[in-house]
Records
---
Amino acid sequence: MYKHFKNQGYNPNLNSHQIYFIQRWGELLENTHIHYRKLLKPSLRSVLKEALRVIDHFKDQVLYEHNIFEILEEVIETLNNNIVLKKIYPNDFNLIESRIKNFLSNKQTFMELKSELDKYKHLNLPYTLMTTLYNKLENEDIPKLYANYLKDELNKPTLSFETVDGLIELVISELIYEGHNKQYLFNWGNGVFIIDSEPNFLKRVERISELGKKNRRPFDCFITLKLPEGYDSLFNHKEGNITFHKDPETLRVEFIEEYSLEEPYHKQLYEFFQTDKHISRIKLESTDEVAAINSAREELISTTKLFTLENKHKQYYPGNLSEAIVYDFQGNQINMDPYIETYQQGLQISNNEKYIKINLSSKMNNKYQGLDQLLQWCRVIQDSPRETGLVAMWSLLEYLFVTDSFNKRKNVLDYAIPYICHFYLKSLAWRTRDILKNNNSENLTLMEEVKNILGEKAIDNLKKEVKLPYFIEFLATNKQKALDIYSDKVIEQRYIGLINRYLSLRGKKLWFEKYLETLKEQVHSDFLRAYRMRNILAHQASMDEEFLDEIYDVIAFYLKLIIDDLLYTITLQPNNSVHDLVKVKRESYEDYLEELKNLDKVEDVNFKKLITTKSLLV
């Protein structure tokens, strides 16, 4: 979230939903989420492209037919969720949705076809329709369409926070698909929506149209690294977009002369090129400089991985590849300190030292059964590149959750999903309390109100905060009091309203139960996507980078949550095996769902139990 929003002297006449749009833009792109999953879903074009790839892989006998049914269901869901493009292309959307639904309604007939050729013929229509829509969207200026739609919507006198959430998630997903880096979009939003001197907010929104693929431009990226011995021939290789240079000083002079760089850059360039390392030079086109330098780094990592195939280079390490500069041809500008996105490989569990100790003792006394193998799988994931890491993640899921070898995938889904759903409300409550605590004076007022209504027991005086069960109880039963305290804080009001809504009764059930059904479907789709990616990788050892990026971080987070919960639980119950605890978790989740049912009034809710989870993440 943009921390200095109030200090920018921004136009005070904005509607509350316009202010929320600005703050939500930053919040969705910040790097400090404690949320249960990545908030951004794949864009429509991404899902269409994946669906076409799935059908291609089915024809190549890489994927089974159930993958087709699953991705087509995702296509329909994504079409329905995209309120922006659906309004612009109603006929296209209705046609493809009706034909795909017709195909899915005849699923059994399709499966009973004996000839592979007949199956391919049945797939021709949905494949052609999706290809046509995908190509149509690719040829449109999508950011401009979204900018025009947003201008109309945000100009309305009132607009719900929920609608703004949906719109902003759609547009950011599309901009990421266009090729933009999240960090760049964060910085862009800060500059355009907050710092820009343009007084008309809707004209600022209109600038989203500048972020399309048509604005891709050339960049020249320089990254320091250390090449292994015996590869001198690479210094003479000048073909392609990557070249290697062993004489940094000569390269510096050539660089300055080639682009006629001005004097102010010379000193900084001298410091960068004054190195005992080699330098790689990567030329590429990109939508922004952050995406450019990170794409260049990824391409360099992919290239240097091949240097380890020879036995003599087994220990080769090129460096962390974070020392870099990027030159923008179009603006004749150099960024000497570009943002380098370093992926967190593996799982990063919360208390590694503790689990190492119990693993050592488990070898002595045969307690903590299954823990050693669990940690070994974590090590495989940790040591693997992202492609093989994703394959290893699914193998770990199978190790943990498969009880029936005839239906492995179903076992994983049945046992893994409760960990994510069980965690969500605690994650949301924790984040909401953190947001409210950022405003110190209002937080003190909130604590006093809670103390007056729920008693001294509700306050943690040492941490100067409301204890979490009492925090959600207060927001569930005293929404207006909380809103009055934060009367001029838009994003705080949004989170207060969200907690209150989840914990309100709809008949004799908490509304949160309905939300968990939606969450379960999303997590289910994420796991199925990971399974498809795993199968493609296992057969082909490669895939489009965009698909890998979309799912890797999500599954890594899910596994991190599952492992933390499991490891914490096993420290309390050393005589039970890992697999015993996995089975208990699913049963405890069923009990959790029962807490959301058959209530007469909100006061009957066991708020403490609703946020009970063993995970150490929050």
---
Amino acid sequence: MPALVVSSPKAESETMVAPTFLVKKQVSISNNGTLSSNVLSIPELCDLIAPHLSLHELAITVRVSSQWYRHFIRHLWKTVTLASTPASLPILALLPELGHHIRTLDWANLTPHWNMKQALAGIDLSSLALQHLHLVNCQTLQGPVLEQLIQSSSQQLNSLRMHDIGKVQGNILRIASTLPQLQHLTLVMDEDTTCRHNRSQPVAPALASMVQSPGGLGSHSGEEEEEDSTVTFEITSADSLPALLDACPRLHTIELIGLPSVLSTDQGQDTQDQEVEQDVDEDDISGSNKNSIMVLETPMRYLTSINLHSTALSGSTLSAIFGRCTRLAKLDISQTSPLFLSDFHLDTSTILRDLETLMLSGCHFLDGHGFKELFQAAPQVLTLEVSDTNIDNTGLAALGRFCPQVLDLGINNCHQITDQGVRDYLGYPPQDTNNSNFGMEAAAAATEQGPYRNYTLHSLSISNCSELTGQGIQHVLTTCAALRSLAFQQPEIMPESMFPHVLQSADDEEEEEETEPQGQESTNNSFAEEEEEASTEDTPGTTATTTATADSSSSWACHKTLELLRIKHLNTINPGQRQYLNARLRELRQLRVLHIGGRQLELRVLDGLGHRLEHLYIDDLKREVDLEDVQWLVDHTPNLTRLWCRQLIRHSEPWKVLRGARKGLKLW
């Protein structure tokens, strides 16, 4: 039996074992080919072998002899997974005897009426020395039960993760603050308690089968025990984070997702009123003094990531996070419902130089200066999300001034920004910290050499901003020369914003009606010249004179880099605009994904698409897709792998023809 468990005839099994074991194995094999038991009496050698054995093999190994049991039992119990099933009861019964071997405990709830408090009743947990604790799918997480579970491991527990929690009773953050070695804290509330993840069965089924299940241990009761009155007064709130930071200086990651607001709407309003009265009574205390008190707190040396998605918090708590967590690389306080922060203030000396990702969607700063303070404190931010906020033109101007390195920007559903805000954001050239006059010199050089181009921004989403017009979108298209992804879906934006040509006035239209043949001929000539310029754009030996004669405003600044374009609501396409759209799309040689739609949009208007196109999403066509459209798709999009179009009727004749021509094409 030992030879079967430890040594395998397969070649790959021997390569997994350490070289020192292979040497000792060759020395210790006797003439009859069996392995000497003295070799496995070395604990260090057993530690090298154990990671290469499965749980079932470890369960067999500990049953070979008492000596093997002593060396391998700690590896069998190093990681234990419990589930709310009868198979977990024998493992719970062995916790007082073998619990000191457990380093990682994963406990998942699989039944709707499982009660952790009843399961732990009468079990001695003093021998537990956990380093990682993971609780999943708890309908009700009770604070006293969690304290009972981690009490003996408080000095070595460094990871506490709780996922899919239905309801919390007690202050979980206060309990976590009793863990001085804590490095990772996760508390994720379950949005839908009916959705449960399938978890694996308990660890070590062979060992569990050796123990007879004691009657009554962790029995299921159809009703949960009544809640203790002392627990209901303690509430888990994100505003307890400052105290947690004081107690756990070794924290690396904090995730509090989905924690609801502590107070109701009426109570929250009363609390805001009380805060206003307190501010009035404490007028003699200046804001600088308050900030100076915050700075005196011990900074967090290791904390790099905080995720508070859909978690309510106050402005003072956010101020404390910025003031103390100076090594942050990612901060997510995005909200699914509006969150109003009225007491947020930062000291001007607060700088988070490592912060690269900042998610603020759904956060409203009522004082009007919150965004400016945030952007000033995070000059190195690369990814910024401010959708569904009250950011205005002043905030965008501050973003362009203090955060010149932003790569990804999302400003969807922001109804206070206008065209001027977009101009202000894109009007700041990158600053040189070693030269204070660099910005002025760059602006002067841009005025002499031509319009300023932004080569930093790679991804921009600016959809459903009601105060934004086509001029703002046009400024983006003519300024951002390094865009790879652009999304703008404005119901009231005219298609002229995509085409940088001057709109005609009423007088010009009357003149055009009088000279319609000449105007039509001029238009045709202009398109012929444009196509000729496009064909000779990348031709070697093109002179500077030829480049100078081209109309620099006719092309988008990002036509050489754009890979994803999302535009909709193009409902006023006339023949002239359709030609401009076709000319612009023909220049997008790197385009891979296109979302486009409009009731007056014709599918053939896209015949200028390059052969790199992989995904095509078309919406709101005024008619169904016919065989002629399908033939166009087959001829002009050889690399297309996904097509989404409502007007392509499933199992119709065009659908069957396209399916037959493109076997690997995924159709909606």
